[in-house]
Amino acid sequence: MLIQILGTGCPKCQKLEENARQAATELNLDFQIEKVKDLQQIMAFGVMITPALVVDGVVKVAGKIPGLEDIKKMLAK
Amino acid sequence: MSESKSSGCACGGSVSLLLPCSGAADTGEIADRAARKFAAGNCAGMFCLAGIGANISGFIASAKGADRLLVVDGCNLDCARKTLAEKGITENIIHVRVTDLGIVKGKSPATAERVDAVVAELGKKLTASLK
Predict the structure, then answer these.
(1) CB atoms near residue B78 (< 10 Å)
(2) Could you point out which of A5, A76, B55, B72 has its C-alpha 20 to 30 Å from the C-alpha of A17?
(3) What is the DSSP letter of A11?
């Protein structure tokens, strides 16, 4: 599973990455996390608000940091 | 309105997005031009309603993540607002309808005066939402 964190590296982006990593680890998923900081690449997803969480190419959330349980649900789908 | 800003990082404050219907009628054109003029004032960022209709996940997630959605419909068909509702986006919406301002669909070329009337209404409603 490819988990991408879209954002320029602000504290919220870092928190989202932390939560996503923890959620994926607790679910025992085979995953890799990639940070996308380039604005052109971010906009190519149609994302206008960061941070955003992308799972296997699908943007799950933008502009918010979901809790651990919510992220687990997003990763499980 | 300085606390609001155009799209960007959610760390930087509130995010307001503009979604005009941009319909084919004169009132749709007024909606589009008014939204673009309002966006130029840097109180909100233009956003792609078509991307939401096309079911592109990034657009839908961004709309759901915004603090405010300034939705501008040209007429009472409310295509923009209904497009959002189709995707479950019904909250944090500030709705402006061009025909509610006495502008008659099909009889109102997109003059600067009419565009400015819609811009003023957007400003009034956004300001009210910030109080």
Answers:
(1) 16
(2) B55
(3) H
Amino acid at position A75, single letter: L
Phi, psi of B85 (to 5 degrees): -60, -35
CATH 3.40.50 fits domain B14-125? yes
Tens place of pLDDT per residue across chain A (77 aa): 999 999 988 889 999 999 999 999 999 999 999 999 999 999 999 999 999 999 999 999 999 999 999 999 999 87
Q: Which residues in B lie closer than 8 A to residue A11 (C-beta atoms)?
A: 11
The domain in which residue A57 lies consists of 2-76
pTM: 0.88
CATH number of the domain enclosing A61: 3.40.30.10
- The reply to whether B45 touches chain A by the CB within 8 Å rule is yes
Q: Which of B15, B57, B59 to mutate to test the interface with A (most CBs of A within 10 A)?
A: B57
Tell me what ipTM this predicted complex has: 0.89
